[in-house]
Amino acid sequence: MSRLIHELSKLPGIGPKTAQRLAFYILGQPQEEISKLAESLLEAKLKITFCSECGHLTESSPCGICSRRNRDQSLLCIVEESKDVIAMEKTKVYKGLYHVLGGAISPLDGVGPEDLRIKELLVRLASNTFTEIIIATNPNIEGEATALYLNKIIKPLELKITRLARGLPVGGDLEYADEVTLGKAFEGRTEI
Description:
The chain is an alpha/beta fold. The protein has helices at 2-8, 16-27, 31-47, 64-67, 82-91, 118-127, 141-154, 179-187; strands at 49-50, 57-58, 72-79, 96-100, 132-135, 160-163.
């Protein structure tokens, strides 16, 4: 039991108490349900790979997004992780292509530009006819550093470079917004 709790606590966002609750839940399930869970974990690990074009997680390469020719081939959205692609696709707003960096520049964590899929990005930019590059890194210190670095290396290619807007969430109260978010909301205001 302690090994199971220890292994579960290695998952992101899972602390010791949650790991313990999960372990008790798992142990209370029928054998066939646990077998299905274990099989699905192994199957995912064995079958899922990275798309040869964008770096998104996929079972076949190129991925379903890159292989769809009805996507807008002139737009490229750069994101940090595959989970960002999934979040963007759920909006059903963006219809272009993606490039997954595989993280963000974080000197404190020992992650530099050479650790990300930036070389692959430059190859894609050189061999395609993109008209706009959308930098959609997270609005945190690492994401901002990555966005600044990307802007610096893409700018000489004379492509239109944009950044996702930042500001207040829908349904949010002004009193709960931090100063940076409020500041960005003022900077990105639009006429009504």
